Each structure stands twice: as C-alpha cells, then as structure tokens.
Amino acid sequence: MTSSLYSSQSADSTKGDACMSLQNVTISYGKFEAVKNVFMDIPRGRVTAFIGPSGCGKSTVLRGLNRMNDLIPGCKLKGRVVFDGHDLYDPKVDPVEVRRRIGMVFQKPNPFPKTIYENIAFGARINGFKGDMDELVERSLRKAAVWDECKDKLRESGFALSGGQQQRLCIARAIATEPEVILMDEPCSALDPISTLKIEETMHELKRSYTIIIVTHNMQQAVRVADQTAFFNAEAVEGGTGKVGYLVEFNDTERIFNAPGQQATQDYVSGRFG
Amino acid sequence: MLTDSSPAGSGPVNPNRNLAADAFTLRRRPPSEKLIDLGFRQLTLVLASFVAIVLLGIFLTVFQGAREAISSFGLSFLTTSSWDPVNEEYGAFIAIYGTLVTSILSLAIAIPLGVGTAIFITEDLIPSSLREAIGLMVELLAAIPSVVLGLWAIFVMEPAIRPALNLLHSLLGWTPFFNTVPQGPGMAPAILILVVMVLPIITAISRDALNQVPIELRQGAYGVGTTRWGAIFSVILPAAVSAITGGVMLALGRAMGETMAVTMIVGNALNFDLSLLAPGNTIAAMLANQFGEADGIQVSALMYAALILMLLTFAVNVVAQWLVRRLSLRY
Description:
The structure holds two protein chains of two kinds.
Chain A: H1 3-11, E1 18-29, E2 32-43, E3 47-51, H2 58-64, E4 75-83, E5 86-87, H3 95-101, E6 102-105, H4 116-126, H5 133-143, H6 147-150, H7 163-176, E7 181-185, H8 193-206, E8 211-215, H9 219-225, E9 228-236, E10 243-252, H10 253-258, H11 263-269
Parallel strand pairs in A: 3-8, 3-9, 6-7, 7-8
Antiparallel strand pairs in A: 1-2, 1-4, 4-5, 9-10
Chain B: H1 31-73, H2 76-79, E1 83-84, E2 89-90, H3 93-122, H4 128-142, H5 146-172, H6 187-212, H7 215-223, H8 228-257, H9 260-266, H10 283-290, H11 297-327
Antiparallel strand pairs in B: 1-2
C-alpha cells in the first residue's frame, strides 16, 4: 500500500505500470446498461482524462473505480476492476477501504457543514491519522492552492468560501486522507475560468504524488492537464431503450487530439460531433 | 385581447416594428395587473398578520384574567404547592414541576426513538416498500385522537407497564424519584403516553430533514472513506440538525400543552411528590379539570397558571432557536 507512492516516481519513464486495470467492465442501472465492455489500463502517477458526449457513461465508469456506484440503488458492475492486485468488486473487499485509498472530488463543490479546519481533519481522523493535525490541514490546503484564502478563517464554515475555493477545499479534503488515486468528476464544471485555471495548476502539482483520473466536458482542459485521454461514445442498441456507452479509444492525449485512430474520435475532438 | 386597449405609453405603431412582436400583447403591464400584484401582496400581509393578532389576543386575554391572581400571589405562586379553594390559597408548583418533568422526560425518550426511526427509514437499510410502510404507520399514529390514547393508556398501557415500574421501584426505590409504589395513574405513564403522542411529529420532521440533506454531501462523506455510521453521525445529522430541532420544538409544544390524554393518566395530584411513580399534575391537566367549576380568584389563579405555561413554551422556543444557531453550520 505504501510502496505505490514510491514506485510512482519511476513510473514516469515507463508508462507500462498500470495503477488500475478495467477488464471487460459493464455497468448497468437496473436493466439499462449505461456503459459496456470497457478494457483499459490506467497508468500510475499520471493524469488520465475521460472525455465524451453526455450520457456516454464516463462519469459512471469513474464512480465505478471507487465503488461510489454502490450508493445508487440498482447499479451493478460486471467485469473486473483491478487495483493493487485485487478486484475491487470481490465480495471480500470492503468498499469503505476502497474509498480510503481512492479519493474523490465531485462535480459540485460539497464541503461538509463544518468549519474549514474540520472539513480537512474529518477525513484524516476517519483514516486513523495520528500525526500533527494542524500541520496536515495546512499542508493539504497548500497543496490544493487554497491556503492563502483559508488561513485566516479556518474556524469558519466551509460555506464561507466562494465556489472555486470550496472546490479546492474539497480537493484538499481528498488529499488529506493521502489516497493513492484521486478521481475527479468534472471538478471545474461549476467554476469560473480563473478558478478552473487554479485547479488545473493544482492538478499538475498533484500528479507528482498521486494518480489522477478526471472526467471533463471541456476538451481544452483535457489537453491542458491530461497525459492520457480516453474517449467514450454512446450508441443506440437494437431492442434497448436508451444509448449504451462504450470506450472508443484510449491513448496519449497528444495522439487523441492530433492523430486519433478512430473517425469518431476525430469528429468529436474537432467539434464535428453528432 | 388587450391589443386595442393597450396603454397610451406604447404610442403609435412603429412601421419598422417586427410584426411578430405584435403577437405579444402584454409587453407593457396593464394597470389592472399591477393592481392585482399589489392586492395580492396586501392579502398575504393580512393572512400573515392573522396569526400574530390571534396570538396577541390570547396572550392579552390570559394576562387580563390572571391579573388578580398575579397581584395577590405574586411570584410565590411559582414556588408554593398549596391549592386550596376553601382558604383561597393557590400555588402552581406541582403543576409547573409536572409540566416540565413530563414534557422534558418524554422528549428525552422520544428524540432518540424518533430520530432513530427517521434514520432507519431514510437510509437504504431495508427495502423501500417496508420503509414506506413504517413511515405510514408513524403518520397514522399521529391521527389517533388524544382521548383514545388516554383511554388506551388507562386500560392497556398502564397495567402492562406496571411490572416494569414495580421493578424500577424495587431497584431504584432509594432515590427520591422512584420511592413510591406505583398504583395506577402517575407521572411515569403520562410521560410514556406523551412519548407516543410526540413520536410521529419528531419522526416525520426528522425524516423530511434527512431527506433534504443534499445527495452531494452524502457522497462527499462516503468519498473520504467514512462508514455509513460515520456519514450519518458526522455529516448527515449535523446538516439536518436545525430542521430536526424545529420538529423537536413542535413536539415540546405539544407535550407541554397536551391536555386530554395526560389528564386521564397523570393522576391530578394535589400533593407534591418528587417521585415519577406517584400521581402528579400538569398545568394543562389542572386547567382542564378545574376550569369548569372554578369561580372568583380560582379562575384568575388558573389564568395565571396558563400564562406561565405560555411563557414557559415561549422561553423554551427562544433557547432552542439560540441553540440551533450555535450548533448548526449551514449548507
């Protein structure tokens, strides 16, 4: 568990080191299949972006990576999600432990109704943190680039911050538990360009120590932050009621945007979609 | 419909005007519409004032009625426990003590029970059909008339719990709170029937409060690796605490003012006893029992007791509001 943080340094040169491996993953809500037959190896210590049109299942896949979908009634995952040598969906695996190692930042900033300090300390305490809490709070807020705005109001409600600051507080909250992977579900969709830029800078800092997987609707953002990009698309299936998402292409971001292997990817990244 | 009679401000038809725009006849609001707006605002003002006026009216009536007793007994009315119509000496201590003890202890039992039920039926611990059935039953509990609950308390509940009360007496009889032998009506059965009466209020409002907690907050809690237990107690309940407290305050108002069922089971004692197993009295029960036959200064003394009940409820509400503001962080 601890070794992964060290191995991430060497992983930069050899991108073969997979952090998470999806093996024929199909996720369905009740009878309706949201996304099917996804195979991908997500590299360690890098930023991976999921892009694609609405309803292609990219957020569903992301939430499947730390068993967040367990909270949605009727949501089922078939296939294997291998992390650290274990299938996350093995019946013996505790979803709470999974989420302690794979943190998440959500689309809408969702600080807890607690003080800024407690927002950070809460997760750390749950994970059994025994060190200097003040120091951890400061370090986490600094890493998330929100320390300067927060340092004078640590005892105030997390809601005293602006939307962008709240989102960075949520990133700090995720960092504070020292996860190995951070999942971000459209973290900038509710933010203005300046806050977005700050969060993207934060992500560049963070990928030194964490594997980051981000879902984004903003293709420019994928280009700016991601080393690897996965393009998902959705197609209607015969006999089905809705569209089913699938993974079209997964490659270096540069390749996806400049020389994609699939026509669908080319159409999407050049804006000729649909 | 209003094209021809449109207000003078719109002026002569501009020949350059887009023809399609002419189809929208209410671009300028006619005076009648503005008048309706104003009227509606005044109407809501009247409706809103109604509550305040009624409240003030009740308060003034009770105060007027109580003036004679206030001037003759003063504040010692609160601390003496003689209730003697023959010598015209009145003190409401028994009833005040009974009101506070029955309402506070019943809430102390009903809050964990009600909030616990609310958690159980809002978290997906059981199939949703079962959840809805339990929720419905709780709401039906509120629909039972209090006189029926009072009868049930006398004939079913009190005999049923008597062995438990006897056990309490034998175990804790050395404390002043349990040192009388339970024999029928008393404070303890009154407390329990109040629990039954306030439970639906607390449960229903807590359930709504918990359902209002945004899903994002819930996900955030699980996202940092909380257990279900941790998410409920550290994030979801704190987020809902102010609304839950609102429900608890309503319940407290009900418990303090509840008359019928309590009168039937509390024992209507005239002698003070600290013991919960002994018969007691509450202000509301005392009013219900004595108002019909009272005259002269006894009416005034009862009015004084009613005034105290109102002020108690008011004070508790103010304290609770203050507490909520201290305890809860907004989301």
